[in-house]
Design brief:
heterodimer, A: 319 residues, alpha/beta, Rossmann fold, two-stranded antiparallel sheet, 44% helix, globular, B: 365 residues, seven-stranded mixed β-sheet, disordered N terminus
Chain lengths: 319, 365
Amino acid sequence: MHARLYRSLYRIRRVEEEIARVYASDKIKSPVHLSIGQEAVSVGVCDALRPDDVVFGTYRGHAMYLAKGGDMAAMVAELYGKVGGCTRGKGGSMHLIDTECGVMGTSAVVGTTIANAAGYAYAMKVRRSDAVVASFFGDGATEEGVFAETLNFAVLKKLPVLFVCENNGFAIHTAQAKRQGLTDICARARAYGMPAERIDGNDVLTLRDRAEAAIERMRGGEGPQFIEATTYRWREHVGPGQDFHLGYREQADCDAAQARDAVRAIAEMLDPKERALIESAVELEVREAFQFAEASAFPTTDDLMTDIFTEEADALANR
Amino acid sequence: MLSPTAKAAPRPAPKPAAERTRSFVEAVREATEQEMARDENVVLYGLDVDDPKAIQGTTLGLPAKFGAERVFGTPLSEDAMTGAAIGMALAGLRPIHVHIRMDFLLLAVNQLLNVAAKSRYMYGGRVNVPMVVRAMIGKSWGQGAQHSQGLHSFFMHVPGIKVVAPSTPYDAKGTLAAAVRDDNPVLYVEHRLLHFQKGPVPAESYTVQPGKARITVPGSDVTVVGISYMQVEALRAAKYLADVGVKAEVIDPIWLNPLDTDTIAESVARTGRLLVVDTAWTNCGAAAEIVSRVGEKLQGEVPFRFQRMGFAPTTCPTTPTLEDAFYPNARTIAAAARDLVEGRKTGWLPAERADLQSIEFKGPF
């Protein structure tokens, strides 16, 4: 399991470092919200999910997409705006999807996918499927009305949704305490009638364990579960760089988070030979993903007016 | 420009009032019941769909027939419940989400326009969002500022969501069935006063698909397009106009997006006059869109006069004296049409005919 977790963590870290490196070349035609520092939240939860379980997430979605098994080359090509991208160059970094492995969407509007996840879970329940849905969102999303509405509905209908609040402490540049009268997000979740647990988001092993237990309860029909995973974003809100010069947060906080880096922590638990094998395989995958993106073509202008509706409806609308 | 290949034959009138007559409400209920029986993926929900009043009767008996999982009332959470519809649709269900007033859609706009309308496109065609949103426009008996709005043009503005506004029981049934089977999101606009309409409705299941408007009264002097409930007023207006020898051609667009511009433009090419009457404001509205599209087709080839009519450009009042002045009606429509025909302000307003009075809703709600 450690090897699997490390591969997943390292894969996300390395491809995002490469995205940040390549960004200066302007080959990436999409705003990027990097997950560097936050990978363990997605990895811990997604490792406890089955392939037929699904996830919904946010514009900071690279980690979730990859952790759930999303195609790395299709993701990088998407960032390049190429036709080989996971949405054929139409969605970019903020709208990743890979339906083959249960990545059902990410949104640029905060909180939006929380309700989509609940609806998907309702369908699973109606179908008597024991598949579950994980809904990833940030601390900012818990201030949106849709968060409150969805938690109520999920409890009312005992939906198999694992709500995962990825709390990195900031909504863009504004600290949680400046936005929330009650910063205890789990208390709010419990008030709606579901179990909630705050977990160190760098502690991937505990997180995985707790997620697995929550998912088991959901498969057993116990209804929605809530995890708040505390984490820290190492880079700026959007873009490849750092932003400590802005003065809204301290370098010391980042240093503390980096001292507890999950990628390094798990790496140190592995046999060095095993670790080297994983790393070289990931390096190859990353290299090939960028090669694929480079080689893939841009869509032609014919594609501008496709997929607004289904095909026959597009023909009618464009008549 | 009229392209001969793109010419749409107008939709034929439904079979004349044959054996079977039903109300608009019964037509909506029947379409829902038949679609739910036909496809187990269809689910129906919204505030109060399972309460004793059953959304004016449009959901009557459906909770008992299909069970509480497929037919259910919801918390007062329009935003999340719309988002849930999208999630259900992504998972293969076909939700019908009911809003007893269209005004409440403003609580659901993020999900409808940022997600439902965009998902297929922004996910590169990898997903469809088959969902129907039924929304009712209120009118009369003091519905007032927040129970009366016709907001369909908001949704026509954004690519990716279809909009349909049937005016007859026949089309109410056929377009609802078409909407439920459609793989795209559809906003189904129903007007509270249309619920009282009666007309021919075949018992069997059928669809009224997008693409064709219907010429409801043929004529040669002026084209009158009536949207949703204003179709009823336009049909009455045609009778007032007939009294003074003006032959109005009345058109029901039925589907607003996609819009059958060809049928309307062909009519205007014959009449040289276009009056579009909406149950909404005219500013940036459906009427403005229809006039523009016809203008783009006919300019340089056919000169024509045109006018839009709709709500007075103010907030809907509750007191009857002001409310009456807020809406177009058969007589003001007839007057505007005659002015278009004569090319001048005639000052004519027909005397009210008892047989053409509006059936107003008598309340209470």
